Amino acid sequence: xxxxxxxxxxxxxxxxxxxxxxxxxxxxxxxxxxxxxxxxxxxxxxxxxxxxxxxxxxxxxxxxxxxxxxxxxxxxxxxxxxxxxxxxxxxxxxxxxxxxxxxxxxxxxxxxxxxxxxxxxxxxxxxxxxxxxxxxxxxxxxxxxxxxxxxxxxxxxxxxxxxxxxxxxxxxxxxxxxxxxxxxxxxxxxxxxxxxxxxxxxxxxxxxxxxxxxxxxxxxxxx
Length: 223
Ligand SMILES: [Zn+2]
Prior knowledge:
It is globular and about 85 Å long. Helix content is about 35%, strand content about 15%. A 7-stranded mixed β-sheet has the order 1-7-6-5-2-3-4, with helices on both faces. The model has no long low-confidence stretch (mean pLDDT about 90). The protein has 7 helices and 7 strands; from the N terminus they run H-E-H-H-E-H-E-H-E-E-E-H-E-H. By secondary structure, it is of the alpha/beta class. Strand 2 (about 85-90), helix 4 (about 100-110) and strand 3 form a beta-alpha-beta unit. The structure holds zinc ion. Zinc ion (ZN) binds near residues 45, 65 and 67. Keywords: Hydrolase, Lipid degradation, Lipid metabolism, Meiosis. It comes from Willisornis vidua (Xingu scale-backed antbird).
């Protein structure tokens, strides 16, 4: 044993204190987000989840639909989205799922700043939710290329990335083999944020370039 007051004893006490501080810091630090979701997922009822997010204090009314209230890839995805408190940056090629549109609209109503980048050709297709979201006051910008704006990612509060193969369509959710990765690793989130900001600026309508003669063969998009 080292005597109390000896140099070895003091060094040991300092090391123990440093360890205690490190353990306390690790304990307080939120656990990193790393979640992998696979689709298709079985149908489930998300009314309670949405109602809870809508009116946090009010008790949710039971939904009369026959679907189970299950923990599924879709419910987990919606939970992640509804965790947004300040901003939601969306970059979605095809967006026709009414339920995900409801979640996005709910966040918009709750004061979350929602920005949506999408594909010019797909946003005009029947069933697209983009027009509805625009009418509800959500800012939407689209590409201006012959190629597709094919990304499918979301950034929650500029710190959590949701990305993968999943288009936000009921078909993809219920029928397709798809993957979604959720991470809050800053090294992954930062380049996606920068890419989003770059596209947001590039697709600003004031920066559009209309090639000569484009008016004569312009395609009308009903959004
Ligand atoms: Zn239901």
